[in-house]
Write a structure and sequence with these properties.
Radius of gyration: 26 Å
Largest sheet: 4 strands, antiparallel
Shape: elongated
Strand order of the largest sheet: 1-2-3-4
Bound molecules: zinc ion
Low-confidence stretches: 210-235
Order of helices and strands: EEEEHHHHHHHHHHHHH
Number of helices: 13
Number of strands: 4
Strand content: 15-25%
Mean pLDDT: 82
Helix content: 40-55%
Length: 235
């Protein structure tokens, strides 16, 4: 493959070819090998990165790193799927994958960046349920029942009706509230109401500070459920 572009060493437009070779870079302290592409001047032999190649090589290096260090392990994926009690095929259908895709990932195949993102999102029961609501028509009744009875799906249902609040809590915060609700034999809304009550207010204010509230939401929720007056400052 060849084309013409300016060669800095020759100082004029030259015929160049694209060359490809394995390169090593260090990202976050890890040495990564990736396939880099360069342009080689056919007149002087100089090799250089043309404008688009620089970005493409950076992307390739980042992707190589992500595949090695950010991709979920097969064990993680099996555990994730088990939480929703879904077959590989049904789980894949809910996330919008091909029929054999989960099987490939659980056998050591590496998800691409889009599917890595979807798998990461699916670890959150509320997000998984949102995906399920969209794609449940693609799977059979038996699989649907298994999934709807699963621990992960039930975790999402416990928060139904609190959709406006729950996305602003971290997974850990939700788990803490759920554990507390279960220990006290309360529903999640009842438990939240207790948090807002004065006796547990210190816990709630920490929760409030930890959560990343968009400004508008924070104002609305503040006027709605946080007691006014000096309590917040004293907590
Ligand atoms: Zn040249």
């Amino acid at each position: 493959m060849s084309n013409r572009m300016p060669c800095a060493r020759c100082g004029e437009i030259r015929e160049v070819e694209i060359v490809e070779r394995e390169e090593l870079v260090t990202i976050k302290g890890k040495e990564i090998s990736f396939k880099a592409r360069y342009s080689r001047c056919l007149s002087c032999g100089d090799e250089f990165e043309a404008s688009g190649q620089l970005d493409a090589n950076l992307d390739a290096a980042r992707e190589a790193y992500a595949r090695l260090y950010e991709a979920p392990s097969p064990e993680t994926l099996v555990a994730l799927r088990a939480r929703y009690n879904a077959s590989q095929k049904a789980f894949g259908a809910i996330l919008g994958f091909g029929e054999l895709t989960m099987n490939g990932y659980e056998s050591g195949g590496t998800p691409d960046s889009t599917n890595r993102l979807l798998l990461k999102l699916a670890a959150d029961p509320l997000v998984f349920k949102a995906m399920y609501d969209i794609n449940s028509g693609k799977i059979g009744a038996i699989q649907r029942r298994r999934i709807e009875d699963s621990e992960g799906f039930q975790a999402a249902l416990r928060w139904s009706g609190l959709g406006a609040l729950s996305p602003y809590l971290t997974q850990l915060q939700r788990e803490k509230i759920e554990a507390c609700a279960s220990r006290n034999d309360r529903s999640v809304p009842e438990q939240l109401a207790v948090y807002v009550g004065v006796s547990s207010f210190q816990d709630y204010s920490r929760l409030y500070v930890e959560a990343r509230w968009p400004d508008q939401e924070a104002r609305e929720l503040t006027s709605m459920i946080v007691p006014s007056g000096p309590t917040l400052g004293a907590a």
